[in-house]
Design a protein that fits this description.
Helix content is 32%, strand content 20%. By secondary structure, the protein is of the alpha+beta class. It has one domain: Alpha-Beta Complex (endopeptidase fold (from Nostoc punctiforme)), CATH 3.90.1720. The strands form two sheets. The chain has a six-stranded antiparallel sheet with strand order 3-8-4-5-6-7. It has a two-stranded parallel ribbon with strand order 1-2. Strand 6 and strand 7 form a beta hairpin. The radius of gyration is 18 Å and the shape is globular.
């Protein structure tokens, strides 16, 4: 009996060690994306719905986030579209649209910021690296009306102080130490299990 109990305890402990938080899972799949060769391409594409994606080997910063979540079974194209269809007035109007567009809405940083603030957790924007963790989504203003988005991962900067970021700012899907390189305008977690 003692032996069976000890084996059961060992199995439970081992399973607990293998269990990952959603943030760790998102971090892991984001890092995997850096192995894919992707050319920065902001073109408008007609894509299928749901689970549509731009052509393989192409993408922008939002596509990194979309592809990472999709690897975890979450289709942001569908989720953003469904919310925009019901709550269009809650989303930015800077593009002059009068209705949702399944081809592009989820690929716009301000729309993702709105979605994450509505359904995720908005986290504080600070300059303390301790306030940021793997799996967090961070949005930046690069100047003027240019916005950017990336995923924080478990890998740390060279000095060990900051989480690295997986993003695509023009050089493909890469992992870089850029958390505080630009003005942070959004900080979120969105961890709904599919």
């Amino acid at each position: 009996m003692k032996r069976k109990f000890a084996c059961l305890v060992f199995i439970l402990v081992a399973e607990g060690c293998l269990a990952q938080s959603f943030g760790q899972k998102l971090s892991s799949v984001a890092i995997q994306l850096t192995n894919d060769q992707v050319v920065y391409d902001p073109s408008y594409f007609s894509i299928s719905y749901p689970n549509g994606d731009v052509p393989e080997g192409k993408g922008v910063c939002t596509d990194v986030v979309i592809r990472a979540y999709r690897k975890l079974g979450i289709d942001l194209q569908k989720e953003v579209h469904e919310d925009m269809k019901e709550n269009f007035s809650e989303y930015p109007t800077i593009w002059g649209l009068s209705r949702p567009d399944t081809n592009i809405d989820h690929r716009r940083v301000p729309n993702l910021m709105t979605f994450f603030s509505r359904f995720g957790e908005e986290k504080p924007i600070t300059t303390d690296p301790e306030d940021y963790e793997a799996g967090d989504i961070v949005c930046w203003n690069l100047g003027g009306a240019i916005t950017h988005i990336g995923i924080l991962v478990e890998e740390k900067s060279g000095d060990g102080k900051r989480n690295m970021v997986v993003h695509n700012i023009g050089g493909g899907q890469v992992i870089e130490d850029v958390l505080f390189d630009y003005k942070i305008i959004g900080h979120y977690t969105y961890s709904r299990e599919p």
